[in-house]
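Protocol step 4 of 6: structure prediction from sequence.
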Amino acid sequence: MSSIVLLGSTGSIGVNTLIIAKQYNITIEALVAGNNIDLLNAQIKLYQPKMVAIANKADKARVNHSNVLCGPEGILALIEMSQSDTIVNALVGYAGLAPTIKATTLGKRVALANKESLVVAGEFIDISHITPIDSEHFGLWYLMNKRPVSKLYITASGGAFRDWELDKMKDATFSDALKHPNWSMGNKITIDSATMTNKLFELLEAKWLFNTSNIDAVIEKKSIIHALAEFTDGSTTAHFAGVDMKLPIAFALKGEVTDPILPPTDLLNIGALEFLPIKSERYPIWSIKEHILKNPHLGVIVNAANEEAIKAFQKEQCSFFGMADMVLDAYKKFETVKAKNLDEIIQIDTEVRTFANAR
């Protein structure tokens, strides 16, 4: 691979992608970023992209580049103009869907860190063009190795409130929810980790990527095991790796990696490992897990309601558990809806957001 387009360059996935690209002498044809213009300018200076796109036109004058596109339309135009065969999509939320569709429609390969693309519109995306950048899905792929599998498992950290008393969680604040026990990530994914919505999304992603509903998640507090594969012969294998996204990124960009990316797992320092069930009294979203795996087209409902619920929680318009109420109410209201095409996905997304905000 000679060059890539990087969407979401200033987030943690984007920053790690640039580190790996530099290690393998991969050219950065274009950078796409949101509001962190200072970091974007530093990246422009270092990587010299031919094109840049940003979220807001108001920031255009601050960007140190002669070829700056703006807004959702600008991002799509940038993808269309690009020569690169690979698009790394590390955008956050629903905003990442249209770029995934555009890139796959053009026959480009998408190294996908944007969960919402598959959650919202998995059945309308050509999975053959998708390589996931996600430690869980990378772990599953690494383990399966074309052997017959009976069940797949991904792991969850449990999020910020995994050890809180349930009564105390009712009063948890937005800033409380951002205190992830194992690592530092962006606001949305950290909130989704606290509610377990993130893990529900990863199950849906796995359904599309590996064409199976026989998948589950368990809590593993140390986040050292990312995935497990249970084989038809009765054996189970686990994927151990440090909490670092450079490994799945390296495989997504290179296809095969033979040199060291992470230090080896220090087994003696890990100590005891424990697997715990995900319970719906602590994570109410988990109550729909079985239903949504049988009806994955309903991912668009959960995603739209969840994005609006997070905004409401941040503005103190609902409680921590109030977010789950918003999502589950929308899920019940729209559970008979099924999009026939991408235009209907957009229409449903709008209707769900309107419903969620009218509660």
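Step 5 (inspection) to follow. The mean pLDDT is 94.
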